[in-house]
Amino acid sequence: MIEDSLKFKNNCIVCKKEFPSRYGYSKFCSNRCNQKDYRNRKLRKEGINYLYKCPECNIGFNKYSSLRKHRARAHKIPSEQTYIQFMLNNIVPTCKCGCGEKPKFLYEERGFCEYKTGHNSRVVNNWGHNPNFKEIKKKSAATQKKMFANGELVAWNKGLTKETSESIRIGTEKMNTPERARNLSKALTGVKKSPEHIKNTIKGLKKYWSDPKKREEKSHQRLLWMKENNHTVKSKTEEEFVKMIDIFDIKYNRQYYVRDIKGYFDFYIKDKNILIEVDGDFWHCNPITKYSKPKYTSQRKNLEKDKIKNEWCQKNNIKLLRFWENDIKNNRTQIIEQLIKELR
What are the residues whose beta carbons fall under 8 Å from the beta carbon of 220, sequence distance 6 or more? Predict the structure, then answer.
């Protein structure tokens, strides 16, 4: 059977020997010849005179852009380092004002800026060599503030948001990353702040948090973050209730966030438009237990929150079911009967 399948005769392109094959287009008589041909082709390819060669893996390229992309992807080497090594012969550029600092790298077509940000004025206006440089700088900043206040100068991004501007959305995504936050925190750790800097920071924070709208927006963002990152509190009593509601094979959301009340409901059954709260005997003062009267601030706050939730549900025509911890432990049959009545 095997001999019948080897009905073609081919010549190996490496050793030139004739060999039987089941395919008419076979090129190699064995895997060894195949590997030998691969090595020969690789040697021929490496013999080509490329304009650029990767120092790390010795692969050749005829375009600088191909080399830059290869080093960035394969070896995680920044484009700036590749540009200095191949386009500037390992000579790091410095600011033309004479400060000796490295200017900003733009991209491969433009390379580096001539001046470090803000240092152009030292040469053009000769501020850096003026004995009254600090006074001139303060005067210039005061003039700019007046022009902004009068409307003569307008910020380029005024009125633009992440939703309306693609450039701002991309910039925000690049800036707001955990890695950048860690790098900033590491760089600023142990750096002593001046008294003026501390004073201005406190003043700015007080002004920011004095606005009720900003406080409400930050509270909303924080609660959403807690929901998305699974940082909301889920009690053991809730876990026991999950086992009971799962019997009905119905879809529900846990920790359903409502912005109007700035809080969460334990469960929300969308198909039935029903909200469910599982209340702990101690934390919500179950009237049939020894915790019926609130003694602690946390208990009073929970009772106030419960009142707000009841009023909100009544206002929005949403049914709210409340189940006590004591009933979940001792009267499960009663709870299941009530759930059957509400969910059928």
Answer: 259, 262
pLDDT 10s digits, 95-151: 988 888 999 998 888 889 988 888 887 777 666 667 777 888 888 889 999 998 998
Tell me the two tokens of residue 19. Answer: 């060999």
321 near 334, Cβ under 8 Å?
no
Amino acid at 172: T
Tens of pLDDT, residues 235-249: 899 999 999 999 888
b/e string for 248-263 if b means 16 or more Cβ within 10 A?
eeeebebbbbbeeeeb
The CATH number for 232-343, chosen from 3.40.50.720, 3.30.450.20, 3.40.960.10, 3.10.20.600, is 3.40.960.10
Rounded to two decimals, the pTM is 0.47
3-class DSSP state for residue 138? helix
Rounded to an integer, what distance in angstroms lies between the CA atom of residue 246 and that of residue 237? 14
